[in-house]
């Protein structure tokens, strides 16, 4: 379980680099990118601890990792 969380954390950090074109605050989106990263990590931890099936968990985590802001919004609107 610790290995999975470590990989997810590394993947989440890599999404900071994707925020630059959208927010334009240098590498990684600055404070906005950091806030999105923290919220993504919280959502992923919440997903892992939920009672959803493993397939649902993997799907939501992939959505959040591929679309950090939109995936986060979708999870809190539809996934909970």
Descriptive report:
It is a single chain. Helices cover 78% and strands 0% of the residues. By secondary structure, the chain is mainly α. Helix 3 packs antiparallel against helix 4 and helix 3 packs parallel to helix 5 (68-79). The chain is globular, with a radius of gyration of 12 Å.
Radius of gyration: 12 Å
Mean of all residue-level pLDDT scores: 77
Number of helices: 5
Intertermini distance: 22 Å
Biggest beta-sheet profile: none
Oligomerization: single chain
Write the layout of secondary structure elements.
Layout: H1 2-14, H2 20-23, H3 30-49, H4 54-66, H5 68-79
Helix pairs in contact: 1-3, 3-4, 3-5, 4-5
Key structural traits:
80 residues, 5 helices, single chain, globular, mainly alpha
Q: Summary?
A:
With 80 residues, the protein is mostly helical. It has helices spanning 2-14, 20-23, 30-49, 54-66, 68-79.
